[in-house]
Amino acid sequence: DVKVTQSSRYLVKRTGEKVFLECVQDMDHENMFWYRQDPGLGLRLIYFSYDVKMKEKGDIPEGYSVSREKKERFSLILESASTNQTSMYLCASSLPQQANTEAFFGQGTRLTVV
Amino acid sequence: GENVEQHPSTLSVQEGDSAVIKCTYSDSASNYFPWYKQELGKGPQLIIDIRSNVGEKKDQRIAVTLNKTAKHFSLHITETQPEDSAVYFCAASSPDFNDYKLSFGAGTTVTVRA
Predict the structure, then answer these.
(1) Is A25 touching B (CB cutoff 8 A)?
(2) Using a CB-CB distance cutoff of 8 angstroms, which residues of chain B are in contact with residue A97?
(3) Which letter, b or e, does each residue of B82-114 get, where b requires 16 or more Cβ atoms within 10 Å of its Cβ?
(4) How far apart are alpha carbons B89 and A43 in whole angstroms?
(5) Pairing of strands B108-113, B10-14
(6) Is the Cβ of B34 closer than 8 Å to some Cβ of chain A?
(7) Which residue from B minimizes the CA distance to A107?
(8) How many contacts does A have with B, using Cβ atoms within 8 A?
(9) Rg (CA), chain B
(10) Nearest-Cα residue of chain A relative to residue B48
């Protein structure tokens, strides 16, 4: 069974902390994504990566960075957490555009910044 | 970039009735339109998708229609059941090779009343 695993289901961090959200996929997918989900706003793309060490900004990259040192792992980094980054974070992976384009999602990490 | 609008934001239906969710998109070059279902506490999961060379696709009680001229697509669920209660997201995909990313609608919370 295909799997995208996010390291934490729930996380509480203090304002100003550096926060790491980890995501691992076991499907050998080239593409990986980080979204945040907020009520009434749907899923908004933060960053994506189509290869190891490659990254592209999504629609809302401010305040975030990413790291992809290995194909199976994509990390989202909040350099200095703020209360407006309290949200549900979803990681996803997929094959390249010219192949099957279904995106597989992790279960999400609910981050609260206090 | 692509902009996807989704309506309604909430939908309550009697068990056995049909549910329809509508989405519009802005980029006429988009060519892939998936629908995702998110159950409580889980990440979104693909339920059906359609490509721009097809006008309609069915899978048991679920169907999706696409009108490229009007740039809108819809999800139809017939004979709704309690397990259909979830949040549904439509999405549209940019066709660029290294720019594969999904733009999501804001989501529709569907409640099926027993």
Answers:
(1) no
(2) 93, 95-98, 100
(3) eebbbbbbbbbbbeeeeebbbbbbbbbebebee
(4) 9
(5) parallel
(6) yes
(7) B43
(8) 67
(9) 14
(10) A102
Residue B98, classed as helix, strand or coil, is helix
d(CA A94, CA A113): 29
Report the 10 Å Cβ neighbour count for A100. 11
- Are the Cβ atoms of A105 and B43 closer than 8 angstroms? yes
Q: Which residues in chain A have Cβ-Cβ distances shorter than 8 Å to B32?
A: 101
What tens-digit pLDDT sequence spans chain A (114 residues)? 669 999 999 999 999 999 999 999 999 999 999 999 999 899 999 999 988 989 999 889 999 999 999 999 999 999 999 999 999 999 999 887 655 578 999 999 999 999
Residue A94, token pair as written in the block? 């997929």
- Alpha carbon A112 to chain centroid, angstroms: 16
